[in-house]
Amino acid sequence: MLPIAEGLLPYRWEWLRFDVTAGLAIAAVAIPSAVAYPAIAGLPAEVGFYASILSLVGYALFGPSRKLIVGPDAASMTVLAATLASLPLENAADRVAAAAALALIVGIFSVVAGRLGLGLVASFLSRPILIGFISGISISILVGQIGRLTGVRIESEGLVLPLLEIIRKASQIHWLTLAFAAAMFGLLVLLARLRSPIPGPLVVVVVAVAASAFFDFEGRGMKIIGSLPGGLPTPVLPSIGRLPLQELLLGGAAIWLVSVSSGLVGARSFGAKDGFKVDADRELVGFGAANIFSGLFSGFPITTSDSRTAINLAAGGRSQLSGLVSAAALAILLVYLNDALRVLPHAALGAILAFAALSLIDLQGLRETWRISRMEFGFALISMWGAISLGVLSGVVIAIAGTLLYVLLKEMRPRDALLGLVPGRPGFYKIHRMPSAAPPPGMVLFMIQGSILFFNADYIRSRLEDVAKAAPSGTSWFVLDASAVAQVDMTAAAMLMQWRADLAAMGQRFAVAELHKEPRDILDRAGFFEGPNAAPAFEDLEDAVRSLASKRADSSV
């Protein structure tokens, strides 16, 4: 059944002061991102509040975790921006409706995937590829702030073209905007180095609003966010009748994959740090409810918020009541204090987003990937290049293709080993690791450490031939240790049957040991255990060696 208020109930009243304190701290951290993140996708600032408020309510009611906090994140917003750019949207209202529809699509995908037990799909992007992809997105976000940081309208997209455009339009730079953006960025860096207990983005918002009101930045030509609606939205299904459904679904799938993958990675990281368990399938249901609530109230797709969750844990939040307190605080701010945000300069938003983008570039993760696996580091760079050079949606495709290619390369050439016995010691040993090991007389014991499927069948056939040709004279049995063979398909079954016949022509018999049920059923239906050269199958390798040694002795007599 769907979890109902599992993150809230049962509740202990001694938790109340911790949850209220944590909720107010979460709201303080949420204000800058609620205003700034919608700008990535070209959405009005108020929808950031809508998404932040209602998603917290949805997750509190249906999310399983007492500690995780959901909200906007930069990666999801960038994929959302790319999706919206691909749709025929005529005005700002269409843009808001499309974003809300995409939140509903992401929510439905998440709930269905959670109910079907497809939480593993959310881990489809490997950690190195996810690191590269999010780093590439971060660079795209950084380039996307050129217009807000300089006050120049940038029409180009991508990485290089906006840089060339700002060089051409250098005479149009609004130097007050650039100076103020640099000052706010420097303030963020300073507060981060001083490890300020007050979140840096919140300080920047307060300072920027005060400076803008005092010095009349709007009158001096600096762009401001303008007035926000003075109330909360009502539930409504977004009007998307004119939009292409296929593109909406494809865009929703891309947003879902990125947001859920990064969200579950973040959730598991916090779970490992704070000692709570994360169930991927149940989290998908929670994410789904949060996105559906956001979409029904004119919000946009959300996922786990790293910054808000970190604040919740640091402030000692005990349950999802902290999320509800945060939602209530944001609602009060939107209804009663929204005029204070009207004069917030775009330059401050650009500084906040640029600083957030730089913090998302995981140089340590890239260095660690380089140290551990050069191949995976290469895939991380491919994923980063796809997000930067080909656009975010194409980058998602590149990231998925990179994952598939990586898995394929790992499986195309599975490891193998010759096995032997060591005098006076039980068990079987890999001969290349244990020089004193030797195969039983008249036998070859060969182990394949991976599945045998259509894309690696020819390679495995060549390995079988090499081993058989190198076997000493007098070898009568070729025994395949299949304990590590998880899968066999029709192509592999046909290859093994042909190999069995070719081996018989060489004067050797084929046998299989420790074959799992699923590949055994495939081989059985293919007729592998029938005919004059039928391969005997043994439950374990010791039985095979003992039985075949006995047959060999009998035949010699």
From TrEMBL:
Location, primary (coarse class): membrane
Parts of the chain that traverse the membrane: 20-40, 47-63, 96-118, 124-143, 173-192, 198-217, 248-272, 284-303, 315-337, 343-363, 384-409
SUPFAM superfamilies linked to this entry: SpoIIaa-like
Domain STAS: 433-548
Keyword Cell wall biogenesis/degradation part of the UniProt annotation: no
InterPro entries with a match to the protein in the record: SLC26A/SulP_dom (IPR011547), SLC26A/SulP_fam (IPR001902), STAS_dom (IPR002645), STAS_dom_sf (IPR036513)
Single biological process term from Gene Ontology: transmembrane transport
Membrane topology classification: Multi-pass membrane protein
CDD domains: STAS_SulP_like_sulfate_transporter
PANTHER family given in the database record: SULFATE TRANSPORTER
Name of this chain's protein: Sulfate transporter
Species assigned in the record: Bosea thiooxidans
